[in-house]
Each structure stands twice: as C-alpha cells, then as structure tokens.
Request: fold
Amino acid sequence: MALRGNAKKIPVLSGLHRDLSRAACLVGMSRRSLLVTVGSAVAGRAFKPALAQSKVSQAEALYQDRPKNGISCAACALFRPPAACAVVMGVISPQGWCRFFDLPD
Ligand code: SF4
Reply:
C-alpha cells in the first residue's frame, strides 16, 4: 500500500499507520476494514450538512406519517417542532419517520 511506503518517510503518517494498526487489532478488524468503516462514518457526517442546505422530497426520504419500529420524528435530531424537518420538505408529523432519522447525540 502506498501509505506504508510514505509512512516511513513522514513521521506523522508513520504514527497514524501504527495507531490504525493498533486500533484495528483492538477491535478485531483489518486495518483496511477499519479505514473503510471510519471513512463511511465521516462521509455520513458530511452528508448531513449537504442535506440541510437543500431539502429533499418526502418521497425521496421515504417519509411516512407513522412511526417505524417505534421510532418517530419527535425523537429525531432533525425534527423542527411543531411540524417541520431540517432535511425533508413539507409538513412533518411528530409521529412520522423517514430514512434520514438521526438519533440526537
Ligand atoms: S425522521 Fe426524517 S422526516 Fe422525521 S424529523 Fe427525522 S429526518 Fe425529518
């Protein structure tokens, strides 16, 4: 892998390489799997602001006006009472749900 060769030349990358390997070992994953997992998480976080800038349609969000598996908009970090959402257009029921549901931190 290119990182390995560069890691020997750049001390910061060498430390990163060692830390990633150690972290991967601790959670029982390969370094590559850990990188993919972390990368996906970062990409997911980056996706949220993009959504906030332009709302998507209820159809795109697979919005429904009833809870799914006991989870509803009222518990979502993106819900804006009394009946709006930061990322989905239109009137949003506190009892609704969509695929962008985000549990508050
Ligand atoms: S579940 Fe979907 S529609 Fe409901 S508040 Fe969250 S993001 Fe908006």
In short: The longest helix spans residues 31-53.
